[in-house]
Amino acid sequence: MKKFLKIFLVLVMTFMMSGSVLAKEVDHFKSDIDNSAEIKDDVKGSSAVLGDNASFSGKADGVSFLLGNSVSFTGESEYAALAGNSIEIEGTINNDAFIAGNVIDIDENASLKRDVIIAGADIEISGKIGRNVSIYGTNIKIKGAEIAGNVKIYGTNLNIDKNTVINGNLSYPSDAVANINKEAIKGKVIKTEAISQEESLMTVVMGKFWSFMSLILVFAVLSLAASKIFVRIQKEYEKFDFNKALETFTKGLIFVIVLPIIIFILFLMSIGIPLSLILLALYFIIMYLSNVFAGYLLGYKLWQKFFDKDINMLVVGIFGLAILFILNLIPGINMIVSIISMMIGIGVIYDVILKKMGSND
């Protein structure tokens, strides 16, 4: 009987100890990529969760990046970038957050303590936002939320109930269908320029979002089929200062200008028409892939600077592409970002692919 009690106590203590270490402390960048991916740990750095079902319930001192069909954030992070079809937020984000998806629900328990950018089709906000929020959406509901700063709406349907408190100004398009309880707004209510149904900002944002998802798919296939290319990028751009960036940009610019001239000259020669058509197809393929390579280079250099030195190729690429996606949403700089990323991406393709053709590397 005593022996049985000893065994029982050992089992109970083992169970209690195992339960207490489920959420362990991780002193480096942590990622999980799976069909159902989840991070529960306390991460002393940044984290990435990629999967059909992606969830984060731990704590991260850096950036938490979640991408999936169904995304759940119930933990705490300094910064967050969340993208998916369905996104549910119940946790705490201490600084800025970017959220893009189809259906977005910011629960009453959620606390987003600084600036937030939200892009989606159906958006419901019931939590706390510590500063300003910009919302790109079709159907936007703000129910019982507490927002300390200004709210900028770019959408077609808006509903703000009496339990909401917006301490700053509210701006929304003059042609939006709006049901607003005026007592909820402590600042000014400003009607902005009407958004046409054909070219609404939401249409632009969602178009860019699906383009971003397509680039991720292309990158994932390339990283599996031709991983050596991205290893070359790491070697070629181990040191990447302003002069190297300018050199890479210039190579891309020369390619964009010179190749169409060559194609045109070949097209004027009957014997050169087949080659000109092949080069034309190659030209457009390189133009499209330029964003993939520019995104990977951006992710790689930021990873080197801010995160753990261990490189996860897939996470680094998605991280860089996500940053380009966010920058392309910001009016005023999106065109500049697109041009620079295209030129540098083409320069990278020249350095790591075209220049290497015929070599043994």
Explain briefly what this protein structure is.
The chain folds into two domains: 21-192, no CATH class; 201-354, no CATH class. It contains seven helices and 21 strands.
Mind explaining what this structure looks like?
- Mean pLDDT is 82; it is low at 1-22.
- By secondary structure, this protein is α/β, with parallel strands linked by helices.
- The longest helix has 34 residues, at 273-306.
- The protein has helices at 2-20, 201-225, 227-236, 242-268, 273-306, 313-327, 334-354, and strands at 25-26, 30-33, 36-39, 42-43, 47-50, 53-56, 59-73, 76-89, 92-93, 97-106, 111-112, 116-119, 122-125, 128-129, 133-142, 146-147, 151-160, 165-166, 170-173, 177-180, 189-192.
- Helix 4 (242-268) crosses helix 7.
Distance between the termini: 71 Å
Backbone CA Rg: 25 Å
Largest sheet, in brief, is: 21 strands, parallel
Mean pLDDT value: 82
Structural class: alpha/beta
